[in-house]
UniProtKB/TrEMBL annotation:
Protein name, entry field: Large-conductance mechanosensitive channel
Keyword terms, alphabetized: Cell membrane, Ion channel, Ion transport, Membrane, Transmembrane, Transmembrane helix, Transport
Assembly mode: Homopentamer.
Source superkingdom: Bacteria
Species lineage: Bacteria, Bacillati, Bacillota, Bacilli, Lactobacillales
Membrane topology type: Multi-pass membrane protein
Entry-linked InterPro entries: Mechanosensitive_channel_CS, MS_channel, MSC/AndL, MscL_channel
Source species: Streptococcus pseudoporcinus LQ 940-04
UniProt xrefs under Gene3D superfamilies: Large-conductance mechanosensitive channel, MscL, domain 1
Cell compartment(s), UniProt: Cell membrane
Pfam family, one: MscL
Record PROSITE patterns: MSCL (PS01327)
GO MF annotations in UniProt: mechanosensitive monoatomic ion channel activity
Protein's job: Channel that opens in response to stretch forces in the membrane lipid bilayer. May participate in the regulation of osmotic pressure changes within the cell.
Length: 125
């Protein structure tokens, strides 16, 4: 049972997932800071001042605090957009890599080899 646990824990997929979770948490902290410290002061402060609040979390209407929800939506849109571009770049890199591997593996065709053999035989005669 311990051997099976060891195989499971050190399987590539589990380690990759663990790294992804840690990096994702760090990325979330960066995006939270971007929204709270950059976007809110630059873009949302005029709206917040007009609403009479100093913090987006205090933004409410009839007791419904929708300010935190707006911040979460902004976070989601930024993270989603960033991940879209990261995945798109990764897919492009993988396609490029796969194409290079196919070119290396493919080598000369049968016809090209036959032409080379014919030319070698002709040059020896």
């Amino acid at each position: 049972m311990i051997k099976e646990l060891k195989e499971f824990l050190f399987k590539g997929n589990v380690l990759d997932l663990a790294v992804a979770v840690v990096i994702g948490a760090a990325f979330k902290a960066i995006i939270d800071s971007l929204v709270a410290d950059v976007i809110t002061p630059l873009i949302l402060n005029p709206v917040l001042k007009a609403a009479g609040v100093s913090n987006i979390a205090e933004l409410a209407w009839n007791g419904v605090k929708y300010g935190s929800f707006i911040a979460a939506v902004i976070n989601f849109l930024i993270i989603g957009t960033t991940l879209f571009f990261v995945v798109k770049a990764a897919n492009k890199a993988m396609t490029f890599r796969k194409k290079e591997e196919e070119e290396v593996i493919a080598g000369p065709t049968q016809e090209e080899l036959l032409v080379q053999i014919r030319d070698l035989l002709a040059s020896k005669s």
